[in-house]
Design goal:
Elements lengths: L30 H11 L10 E5 L14 E4 L5 H11 L4 E7 H7 L1 H10 L4 E6 L34 H7 L4 E6 L3 H13 L4 E6 L11 H4 L4 H4 E3 L7 E2 L5 E6 L2 E6 L20 H7 L8 E8 L5 H16 L4 H6 L8
Parallel strand pairs: 1-2, 1-3, 3-4, 4-6, 5-6, 7-11
Antiparallel strand pairs: 5-11, 8-9, 9-10
């Protein structure tokens, strides 16, 4: 059949991925920006909406599936990675996205998150990190900084916070990245990179909760401070930052340090980013860099190739069928010792 006779696929637009539901987040919430960039990015993948599934848990971010004109599952607290695993294994052709928050993923959902990442299913996990429990009205979360005063920690949190990227890298994530809700072009690019990655992609998005934790990331978004507080990492390029691009990151032994260029230090002395290193030490080092001692790294920290879970699983099933034939459920029930109770 000539390809000339085939009907042309429709050109997808952002509006094709927008549902008819009213978006019910607080005015000014950073979730709006993430939703907008997701809808703007998806058409570039060429995947029709009926082949995309968004799975969420519980929290403000977890309303996301309602606002997408795709398939979606609003599941239970912390279990989105487990539900998404079932979806992907059942139908590997689907593009599966997990939408979660710092509380949903790293508290009750920590176990499910770790195992989804280590298995390396071909799916995408986007974690909205606002360092607070927003839906339940302002309690401290697993990422709230030490000393954070909230409704549940009136004298300041005494918990050491988790770094989502460090957790993901520790679980051997094959794709790890970070962006910021209002850095719209950067966010769109990172989401696109995540979607194209084969394996589990993990993206942390710093998201402002303007009701219960407003301006938590102001140092990364304010025009006067963001250049000196942000390190945008790019594969194969030196780690340079600052308003005048005159600062960089250098290794002192195995410890990173901030240095100034032009004072006996050149770009060649700096640490060069390599997102494709199989050994995750560099990515982990970047995930541990925190303000104000260091600029906050954004971009893709790690992107490596590893076997895909559902591909290996289905290959194993196919091999078993080839060797032993199609199974029979009735025979399975009747196998072994059986007896009748009268």
């Amino acid at each position: 059949m000539s390809t000339d006779a085939l009907p042309a696929l429709p050109v997808l637009k952002a509006t094709d991925f927008a549902s008819d539901q009213d978006v019910r987040w607080c005015p000014g919430c950073g979730d709006y920006s993430i939703l907008a960039q997701m809808k703007k990015m998806l058409p570039s993948l060429g995947i029709p909406p009926h082949k995309i599934v968004f799975v969420s848990g519980i929290g403000c971010s977890s309303r996301f599936p309602y606002y997408m004109s795709t398939y979606g599952v609003h599941s239970i607290h912390g279990r989105a990675p487990a539900v998404a695993t079932g979806v992907k294994v059942a139908n590997p052709e689907l593009s599966v996205w997990v939408i979660t928050g710092d509380g949903d993923a790293l508290s009750i959902g920590g176990n499910h998150l770790l195992h989804a990442i280590r298995r390396n299913l071909d799916m995408n996990i986007v974690l909205f990190n606002n360092q607070i429990y927003g839906l339940t009205k302002g309690q401290y979360s697993p990422t709230s900084p030490l000393g954070k005063v909230t409704k549940s920690t009136p004298f300041g949190s005494v918990d050491n916070p988790l770094s989502p990227l460090s957790v993901a890298i520790g679980a051997e994530a094959t794709f790890v990245a970070r962006s910021i809700d209002v850095h719209i072009k950067h966010l769109g690019d990172v989401l696109h990179r995540a979607a194209e990655h084969r394996g589990t992609s993990f993206v942390e998005v710093y998201q402002n909760c303007n009701i219960f934790n407003d301006k938590a990331f102001e140092y990364l978004t304010d025009r006067d401070t963001k250049a000196d507080a942000t390190l945008e990492v790019e594969h194969g390029k030196p780690m340079i930052f600052g308003k005048n691009r005159d600062k960089g990151i250098r290794l002192n032994g195995i410890t990173p340090e901030v240095v100034e260029l032009g004072k006996g230090i050149s770009e060649d002395d700096l640490l060069f980013h390599d997102e494709q290193l199989e050994e995750p030490t560099l990515a982990y080092l970047l995930s541990r860099m925190r303000h104000p001692e260091f600029p906050v790294p954004i971009g893709v920290l790690r992107s490596v190739e590893r076997p895909i879970f559902e591909e290996r699983l289905h290959a194993q099933i196919a091999d078993a069928v080839k060797k032993r034939g199609e199974g029979d459920l009735n025979e399975l029930f009747q196998a072994g010792e059986t007896w009748v109770v009268k």
